[in-house]
Amino acid sequence: MIKVQGPVVLYQDGVHEAARRRRSLRARYAYGLIFFATNLLAWFVRDYGAKLLRGLHHVPVCGAGDSKCFQSGGVLRVSLGCFIFFWVMFATTFGTRKLHEVRNSWHSGCWILKFLVYAVSIIIPFIVPNIFIQLYGEIARMGAGIFLILQLISVSHFISWCNKRWMPDSQSNQCGLFGLFLSTISFIASFAGIAVLYVLYVPNSSCAFNIFTITWTATLVAVMMAVSLHSKVNEGLLSSGIMGLYIVFLCWSALHSEPQTGKCHTRLIFANDSDWATIVSFIIAICAIVMATFSTGIDTRSFQFRNDEDQLEDDVPYSYEIFHIVFAMGAMYFAMLFISWELNHPTRKWSIDVGWVSTWVKIINEWFAASIYVWRLISPVILRKQAANNEELVPRTLIVQCSR
C-alpha cells in the first residue's frame, strides 16, 4: 500500500499545481478587464462626470461648480486609484515564486475581497486634497515615461524572439523562407505606410513639420535596413523590418495627435460630419492602451536580469510583481494620454492624446526606439573590435618588455 500511495500523491500534487497554474494564467485577463474598466471610468468622469455625478459636488475637495474632480482632475484621481490598487497587488505578491504559496492564491483568487480593495482605492483619491493630486500628476509624467521605456524593452524582446524563431542561424543550412517572407512583407508595409502618411498628412507643401517627420522616419527605416544587412552585423531583415513597422506606427500616432486646428490634420481632409469616426478612433485608442499595457505586463521575462533559469513545475508562470508594477505604470500612462500630458489641459469630448506635447512625446519615443535598436546592432561589433585591440596590445607590450 505504501508503494501505491507515493505515485498517487505525486499525481494529485501535479493535478493541483496544473490547476493553480491555469488559475494564475486566467487571472491576467481579469486584471486586464479591471484596467480596461478603469480606462472607461476615467473617460466617463472626464467627459460626463460634471453632469451625471452631481453627488461629488458635495465632497469638500470637489466643491460646487469646480472641476477639481472632473475633466483632467478627475482623470488623475481615477488614475491614482488604479495605481494604488496595482501597487497594493505589487506589495502583496512581491517575491512569490511557488504555486503553493498563499500569495499565489491571493493573486489568482479572492476576487470579492480584491474588488473591495479596488473600490476603496478608487474612492480614496476623491477625498484627497487637490495639491496631492497635482503632485501625483507630476509624478505620473515620469511614470508614463518609464512605461514607454518598458514597452520599448518588451517590443525589442519580441523582435529578438521573432528573429531567433524564424530566421536561420548563420552556421546552419536552413533556408528560413518564412522569415524572409515576413521580412519582405514588413519592409513593403513600412514603406507603403510612409507613402500613406505623405498622402494623408501632407496635403500641401506648407506642411513642413509633417514633411520633415515622415521623411526622417523613412530615413530611419532605411538606416536600420542598411545596418542590419552590413557584413559585420549580419542581423538579417526580419528584426529591422518589424522595428521599421513599429516606428512607422509611432510616426502615424504622433501625426494623428497633432491639434486639429492645423491645416495639415487628416480630419480636415474628410467630411465635416465625422462624429462616428471620432467615436470609433477613441474606442480603438482605449483598446490600444489596454493591449499595450497587457502585452507589456505579461512579458515579464524581458525585465528579469536572468532568463536562463529553468522553470520548475511548481514555479509561478510569470513574475507577479513585474506584472502589477507594469500595470501601475500603465495607470499613469493612460492618465497622461487622457489629459494630453498637460495637467490643466482643456479636454474635448471623445478626444484622447491630442496636443503638441503628445505629438513630441511620440516623436521622441520613435527616435529613441530607432537609436536603441541601431545601438543594439552595432554594440557587439564595437565590443569585439575593442577586445581584439586589447588582445593585440598585450603581445606588443610583452615584446617591448622582453627586448629591454
From TrEMBL:
The keyword Transmembrane applies. It is found in: Membrane. The keyword Membrane applies. The chain crosses the membrane at residues 29-46, 75-94, 115-136, 142-163, 175-202, 208-229, 236-256, 276-298, 318-339, 359-378. It is a multi-pass membrane protein. Keywords: Membrane, Transmembrane, Transmembrane helix. GO terms for cellular component: membrane. InterPro entries: TDE1/TMS (IPR005016). PANTHER family: SERINC-DOMAIN CONTAINING SERINE AND SPHINGOLIPID BIOSYNTHESIS PROTEIN (PTHR10383:SF23), SERINE INCORPORATOR (PTHR10383). Belongs to the TDE1 family. This is Serine incorporator.
